[in-house]
């Protein structure tokens, strides 16, 4: 089980009231919500391994160099050296170090790599997996990893994590008319405002799906642009032709990396905390006794 951790703690932050606070008044709603999410996921799905995948760089420079608008609207502070600072709610940012400390004390593997997003860590771990993989994320970009033959599916939270949309190839074909790899082509053609991907002007999701159905993949569509006998409309041909520069680089931006240099780590789900005393101290300091007890009880089963 691979967690898109930031996606989940953002959901926890907006799903749990900010009246949930530590004894000193610090909001800990995202922390408590994430702990409850993990407890529920372990209880419902019984993973052997669980990895909290981390955004060590939420806007990697190599993606920005290819498409400068990539996540640009979410930048709070630009930093020439190191990752830009992401726009984050004032009461969420201070909770992230608490989440890191709690996961580390519990012994839940937390993996991030400089210069890469959590999506890239997830993509690399998925590629290396020798058994079934469940990816837990609220980010549709990771639909590209769905692969029935390798038993890779995406579990997309609809309400908390008690209600998850099971995304497999049948669901993707029903919803978008594509398989996992085809989702990359669909996404880059239609664009994604939330990630600052412009897409091809005039090519929305339905048109992109029809083009992929007709021509197979992005390469087939671009070959059709050069074929006067193809069935593209004049406006489609013009728009795709004008978007060649974008289409040439967008796949590398949208496709998750599969070759991230991961550190050594133990992905096994712990049955007891790595550092019981620190877990107890963190639970007391941040008012997380009940959430921690629920999770530890679930881990010990």
Jot down its keywords.
301 residues; alpha/beta; 13 helices; six-stranded mixed sheet; 46% helix; 10% strand
Give the SSE layout:
Layout: E1 2-4, H1 5-15, H2 29-45, E2 51-53, H3 61-66, E3 75-77, E4 85-86, H4 95-106, E5 109-111, H5 118-128, E6 133-136, E7 152-159, E8 163-167, H6 169-176, H7 180-190, H8 205-215, H9 218-225, H10 234-242, H11 244-254, H12 276-286, H13 289-299
Provide structural commentary.
This protein is α/β, with parallel strands linked by helices and 301 residues long. The protein is built from 13 helices and eight strands. The strands form two sheets. A six-stranded mixed β-sheet has the order 5-2-1-6-7-8, sandwiched between helices. The longest helix has 17 residues, at 29-45. It is elongated, with a radius of gyration of 21 Å. The mean pLDDT is 96.
Order of helices and strands: EHHEHEEHEHEEEHHHHHHHH
Cα distance, first to last residue?
A: 17 Å
Percent of residues in helices comes to 40-55%
Count of extended strands: 8
Total DSSP helices: 13
Q: What's the overall average pLDDT, rounded?
A: 96
Brief overview:
The protein is α/β, with parallel strands linked by helices and 301 residues long.
